[in-house]
Amino acid sequence: MQNTRNAICHLGHVVTLSHAQPSKLLLSVTRKENGTGGYSTYEIVWCPLIMSTDQEPPLSAKLFHLIFLSTFWGMQIWVTFISGFIMDSHLNRHTYGFIQSRLFPFYLHVGSACAFFNLAIFAMYHPNDLLDDKEAFQIFVFFVCVTVAAVNAQWFGQLTSEIMADMHMIEQACGLGQDIGLSSNREAYSKLCDKDPKYKQLSKRLWLYHLLSSLCNLCCIVCNGYSLYYLAENLTTL
């Protein structure tokens, strides 16, 4: 490709910018004095954080992409559909809440990091001007997953844990929280809501933020499920 040059004249100096390579910027300065000219050429190397390329991704990039996607997917399946039901049927209300308050922040932050690296690796080897419809939609799916996972980790999940801790303090003062399972002894907690306005307000807020956090988690599961389908569709062999 022919080099593109832009000239800027200022106080008898001629500055020429030349893009010889995508990652290098050549700066050529010509100075004229009394009919004589001195020539100096400076080379500035520009190293962007992430630069798209249409080359075939190396094995290491494919491996890391699979590791991040499978790690996030595996955590989602275990935390959402397995560990929660097992702990609910074997642990009392406060022990279950304590474990969830320690487990979920770690789970949500690791998941959002995996989603970000998936997006970065995929976008690096799929330049915008070469995207087809499926690749563009896959980048959109990764972007949605990153955004939703980050919002859940920073706001909804954190607020849910904080509200649950405040409710447990009130329940302990009333001698509640040692029953097995979240659905047991509902009458006692309903009476506590009627008697304590603060507890009732916390209960409503917990229901709202837990619902939003669950919807975000479900959205990320759907996004990662589609990403796995996209990878399987593009596999040439096992």
TrEMBL record:
Keywords: Membrane, Transmembrane, Transmembrane helix. One of its GO terms (cellular component) is membrane. It is found in: Membrane. The keyword Manganese does not apply. It comes from the Eukaryota. The keyword Ribosomal protein does not apply. InterPro entries: TMEM205, TMEM205-like. Residues 68-168 form the TMEM205-like domain. The chain crosses the membrane at residues 63-86, 106-125, 137-157, 207-232. Its main location: membrane. This is TMEM205-like domain-containing protein. The lineage of its organism: Eukaryota, Metazoa, Chordata, Craniata, Vertebrata.
